[in-house]
Amino acid sequence: MAENEDGVLNEGGVSGDSTVTEMIREVDVVAPASDTTEREEWRMVVGRWYVLACFSMLSFCQCMVWFTFSSASTQFEDYYDISESTIDLLLNWGAIIFIPSAFCIWLMQIYLPIQGLRIAFWIGCIANFTGSVVRTIPCWLDKDIRQSDKGVWMLHLGQILSAMSAGVVMTLCTKLSVVWFPTHQRATATAIAYTSNSAGTALLFLLTPAIVSDPEGTPTLLYIQIAFSFIPIVGPYWLFLFCFQS
């Protein structure tokens, strides 16, 4: 595909920067050449938006997990026998861990300019899913253990793991749009990636009153969040089948 005078590909491409081009080759999605069939072009366009959907789903789930214990603090305080200050700390882990995690992601993009975006995405997916599962472990234990220090520390560990993915979803939105989208679609892609984070919080505060009307509904809410957190992990597999299987 030909470039214009500014070095921008005419249709569905990205800037002529060699690093960005190598990033796209690394994820096995290359801008179509002049003889590319219409079907392959269509696959590339759909695959681009599917990648954005996977990333946005990770952002959605991360914020949903982050605000869990603040969405119905009274019920969670009764279920785990914890204080309001503990609820506040469970929330604050998101902001605390974001600082070092964002720094690590920044270093990763410098020293791994080609593979860094993909590696960071998988780190975020695994950290968020693992954190969701770890927080649920106290629900499987006896009440005495669940309300002990061991049970509470599992909640803290789960929140810390989930917070590690915040550095991914909050810092890589613009890089995702630059690598995967042509110039005229980058603002839209970036807006979708950022807005999905807040959408996770919005859905959480709609679901929680219906599910956790009493403390015993806590496990159900946590199980739902585990299911949501698993979606970004399996999503790229379906992208592979769609783009590379006949």
What count of helical segments does DSSP give?
11
Give a quick account of the main beta sheet: strands, pairing sense, barrel closure: none
Chain-averaged pLDDT: 83
What overall geometry do the principal axes of the alpha carbons give? elongated
**How much strand?**
under 5%
By DSSP, the count of extended strands is 0
Short recap of the structure:
This protein has 246 residues and is an all-alpha fold. It has helices spanning 18-26, 38-66, 73-80, 84-111, 116-136, 143-146, 149-164, 166-169, 173-180, 186-211, 218-244.
Description:
With 246 residues, the protein is mainly alpha-helical. Helices cover 73% and strands 0% of the residues. It has eleven helices and no strands. The protein has helices spanning 18-26, 38-66, 73-80, 84-111, 116-136, 143-146, 149-164, 166-169, 173-180, 186-211, 218-244. Helix 2 packs antiparallel against helix 11, helix 4 (84-111) runs parallel beside helix 7 (149-164) and helix 5 runs antiparallel to helix 7. The longest helix is centred in the first third of the chain and has 29 residues, at 38-66. The protein is elongated, with a radius of gyration of 20 Å. The two termini are 24 Å apart. The relative contact order is 0.17. The model is unreliable at 1-35 (pLDDT under 50).
Write the layout of secondary structure elements.
Layout: H1 18-26, H2 38-66, H3 73-80, H4 84-111, H5 116-136, H6 143-146, H7 149-164, H8 166-169, H9 173-180, H10 186-211, H11 218-244
Helix pairs in contact: 2-5, 2-9, 2-10, 2-11, 4-7, 5-7, 5-11, 9-10
